[in-house]
Batch of 2 targets.
Target 1
Amino acid sequence: MEIRRTRIADAIKKTSFGEPINVKGWVRTKRGNKSVNFIALNDGSTINNIQIVADVEKFDEKILKSITTGACISVIGKLVESMGGGQSVEIQADEIEIYGTADDTYPLQKKGHTMEYLRDIAHLRPRTNLFGAVLRIRHNMAIAIHKYFHERGFYYFHSPIITASDCEGAGQMFQVTTQNLYNLKKDENGNIKYDDDFFGKQTSLTVSGQLEGELAATALGAIYTFGPTFRAENSNTPRHLAEFWMIEPEVAFIDLQDLMDLEEDFIKHCVKWALDNCMDDLEFLNKMIDNGLIERLKAVVDTEFVRLPYTEGVKILEEAIKAGHKFEFPVYWGCDLASEHERYLVEEHFKKPVIMIDYPKEIKAFYMKENADKKTVQGTDVLFPQIGEIIGGSVREENYEKLLKRIEELNIPMKDMWWYLDTRKYGSCPHGGFGLGFERLMLFVTGMQNIRDVIPFPRTPKTANF
Ligand code: 4AD
Ligand code: MG
């Protein structure tokens, strides 16, 4: 019998009972008795399995024996209305073909696995219900992002991955070289000479596409980047990756108010997209991972974010300390707020997302526009419940002299910056933008607790497997 394969996502919605159907997928479980076997089959198109009913007398014993958890099979049978609870349709099998068996060494036998164990078998974890759900949501978030910007006239701009400049100035870059590391060329002072290296100078993997994004925004009006980003920060936390994906819109002619409006509208759009398009997977995560998840997602879509100057935020935290609240790190005007401080403001004080603005210039990057007080800059961080910082952005300093002065104050090498300064020299304009950490968004939308579990193959200090 020649029948075209139906995806399980489509098969479970069908009502054409009695008709022949073909599904293919991986066996989640098999149970049964002397006369009938029940196989739960999943093909990744949905969190839902389809139940295959196989009468023992119809099949070779060898075939039924090799249908074990993890095996891949093709089933032709009749679509029938399900008798048992939990599903609406099932398939009464007529033919079963085994594509690939999985013996009892298959690491995903039916039992609850720890996240740590699943990280060790990250090559197989996409076959779990949990990681299937996470990966389908990840895809949907990428689509939501492209759709949002495309529909609003932003152009998708491809900033380079190999770069000679350090956008954030934090010196957390991975070097890119073809030099023989056992025999580096050095000058008389012992400094490495890069003239023979592939690019003829020191290069690294980018920490941000912003600087190039600004070049594009001051030509195309509004752009966004969406690509891999690399940071060699040695922070072994559930919120940091060495390789993560960042979305960086950059827009000409906007001010701080417009920027905050864009940040809030964009992130609400993404969360709403998940609620509108990923409900099966969200319900699964709500049940298995965090039973406050869906409620929290809905709350974010429906609330107005708080907009809070840094100075007021510090006051609130100082009041909290006076009232007896204990933090691990000290709070004072000028300090870089720790995630415990950010989470206090978001989760306990305001109980909703906070867009913090007007940070002390000393703790922010060189490109942020200075306020009239000459102490603070027009930087914005969006702080989220459970996550802390999810977005970092700013209005950019568009004045040539002021920007040059700041670059000099911070000893940023001019050989890296002349082209960036040219945007301010020729037809400069007010502009701004932000960076959203894609995996931080994924943490929020899935309720997962560790950033290593929302990217297929995490790169963190001492780990780069698969
Ligand atoms: O705040 P950051 O460092 O800002 C920038 O890179 C700017 N150039 C963005 C811009 O204005 N165009 O990083 C932006 C976001 C953070 O808010 C966070 O969500 C995420 O990127 N992020 C990380 N995510 C995972 N692992 C890391 N190590 C991250 N570092 C930053
Ligand atoms: Mg930041």
Note: Residues 167-168, 208, 210, 231, 233, 240-241, 244, 246, 248, 389-394, 433-435, 437, 439-440 surround 4AD (ligand 1) (CB under 6 Å).
Target 2
Amino acid sequence: MSVRIIVAKDYDEMSRKAANIIASQIIMKPDSVLGLATGSTPIGTYKELVKKYENKELDFSEITTVNLDEYKGLSREHDQSYYYFMHDNLFDHVNLRKDASFLPDGTKADSEKECAEYEAKVASLGYADLQLLGIGRNGHIGFNEPGDVFVKDTHVVDLTESTIDANKRFFASADDVPKQALSMGIGTIMHAKTVLLLASGKDKAEAIKNSFFGPVTPQCQGSILQFHSNVIVVCDEDAYSLVK
Ligand code: GLP
């Protein structure tokens, strides 16, 4: 097991450090498969990556991306779909090839089939060289919610009340938050050669403590990362505040 924890002063410093780590991955392996994440946490990191691209420090032309998850039922044009988020925050601002970015499609009638096809796609790419992760307040990674098991492959998830509550700020009301999502499984994530997990703010302090300093249990899905051989956590002081 190898978990390196880097504590940054605040969100901005976390974002800069994370972008530097991703940048070195791209420089060292220009045809990397990057596993990407959504949520408010990585937005600053994506901004830093766009800046590096604009400054001609980075070239995305050989990069392939795979995303962790997508809400079920939201069209790609919906401004809360993760497809829209990724285009808005990164894809439209760098020189990624148009056919080199993959997300599960939440609009397919047969979600189980879509999940199986997505898993096969990620596997055919050799899984992520570097997987970026945020973490839910309840320790979820991707949309792998607390439960009795770790689900291996990409699957359909029923979102928990806690996640719907956390994400309702992006929708008109909690009723508008999709109740299901398609998410990479824990096995898909654990195949990544490097995992880079970001966390910022006191809201995430419990999840960081439980994931990296508690027992490995599906009740806190992030804790499985203790069994990964190459994990880097970049968190700010608030997110680290419950670690003694
Ligand atoms: C979302 C996403 C996760 C993300 C997490 C935290 O629901 N599915 O991939 O890491 O919840 O989100 P945020 O960064 O907004 O706190």
Note: Strands lie at 3-8, 33-36, 64-67, 69-71, 101-102, 130-133, 155-158, 180-183, 194-199, 231-236.
